[in-house]
Amino acid sequence: MQRRHDLDWVRTCAFALLVLYHVGMYYVTWEWHVDSPHASTALEPFMMLSSPWRLGLLFLVSGVATAFLLGKARATAAREDGRVRFLGPRSWRLLVPLAFGMLVIVPPQSYFEVVDKLPGGYHDGYLAFWGRYLAADDSFCRGDDCLVLPTWNHLWFVAYLWVYTVALWGLARFAPRMLERAGGWLAGRLTSRAGVLLWPIVYFALARVALIGVFDSTHALVDDWYNHVQYFALFLLGFAIARADGVWEAMVRQRRLALALWLTSWLAVVAYFHHFSQIEPPHALRLAMRAAWGMNQWCAIVAILGFARHWSPGDSPVLRYLSQAIFPVYILHQTVIILLAVGMRPLALPPLLEGPLLVAATFALCFAGYELLRRIPLARPLFGLASQRRVPTPAPAPAA
């Protein structure tokens, strides 16, 4: 169970990309919690460069990590002749930050959304809003569009990851042979010639063609079937190929072709949305672009994982630091972005100056928050950090 440092780097960079993406959401015309006075379509093509795949990549890497964590738990249980301790510790690391985030970290996002977008504004102050937030007040509406409170906003990834982990644990606990056979069969298909590209492209293209017009992307768990079809599949795939070296080597071999297909499909999708922004596209072309979206999301993942495996970046103090910091930074980042964005409005800075300042200030404050929180024992589990273990002081040597 040798640690995959290339995947540690991928995970760290993917979470960092979320910070950049959510800063970008402030400046585009898409629906978000708050909007910049300078919002325009200028950034949208670059946002679509990562839209199809950034979360899917994280779910796949999380599936790999789950395979290693479960293997480690089983090895520990075998050595100590005890039961496997996996689901309890994993739930603690995910559900405690999720609950704390929904109660404390996320409410400012909803508050400024109400202040910005509620007809007539909101003037009762944050503490009054927080009380209504905790009471699940459903009266914050714009027509038929009502804000659901409390909410997990950007922390939906943590909720989904826990649900997928529980489902996978159930399969590993009650149907281990079926899970092993399915993983072996899948690995065999992905290592045959161009199988590492072909079969997943077919799956994700068909999923989007069949489901995206039926199920919206809600991140609400119970009705988010298109996202479950793609994200749970990627999570299971990561678990299945965690130790399948042949699949990883196939990604290395196909990395250049995957990169070319990724960028080509991105250009096609950008051109499609630009041309048909105001007019209805032909139905056949719409279906073709949905298939291109599915190809884009898998080819990007293969290119990123293939190049990371090829370059094989190793361990370093920087990686160990970032690997610990990135989850607390993820928990904090969207609230920090919104607080900074609203706070910087009176400065009336041009977007080309304000945007980079917003990125730099967000990273600085989030890492400063991590440095503070990791030193407070009671705060560590609230942000997904393991409890610090006290190292016993060695007894002094006896006098000669």
Description of the structure:
It is built from 15 helices and two strands. The protein is mainly alpha-helical. Strands 1-2 form a two-stranded antiparallel sheet. Helix 4 packs antiparallel against helix 7 (156-174). The relative contact order is 0.13. It has a domain at 1-47 and 316-383. Helices cover 67% and strands 1% of the residues. Residues 5-370 form the Acyltransferase domain. GO terms for molecular function: acyltransferase activity.
Q: Which terms summarize this structure?
A:
400 residues; 15 helices; Glucan_succinyl_AcylTrfase; transmembrane; Acyltransferase family protein; acyltransferase; membrane
Architecture blueprint of SSEs:
Blueprint: H1 5-25, H2 44-47, H3 54-80, H4 87-105, H5 107-117, H6 126-134, E1 141-142, E2 145-146, H7 156-174, H8 176-190, H9 195-211, H10 225-240, H11 245-253, H12 255-275, H13 283-311, H14 317-344, H15 351-373
Helix pairs in contact: 1-3, 1-13, 1-14, 1-15, 3-10, 4-7, 5-6, 7-8, 9-10, 9-13, 11-13, 12-13, 14-15
Concise synopsis of the structure shown:
The protein is built from 15 helices and two strands.
Strand tally: 2
State Rg. 23 Å
Class based on secondary structure composition and strand pairing: mainly alpha
Helix-strand pattern, N to C? HHHHHHEEHHHHHHHHH
Straight-line distance between termini: 45 Å
- Morphology: globular
Q: Which range does the strand content fall in?
A: under 5%
Biggest β-sheet strands, sense, barrel: 2 strands, antiparallel
Query: Percent of residues in helical segments?
Result: 55-70%
Overall pLDDT score = 93
Tally of helical segments: 15
Biggest sheet, spatial arrangement of strands: 1-2
Uncertain segments are: 391-400
Pfam family, one: Acyl_transf_3
Organism: Luteimonas kalidii
InterPro entries: Acyl_transf_3_dom (IPR002656), Glucan_succinyl_AcylTrfase (IPR050623)
Keywords: Acyltransferase, Membrane, Transferase, Transmembrane, Transmembrane helix
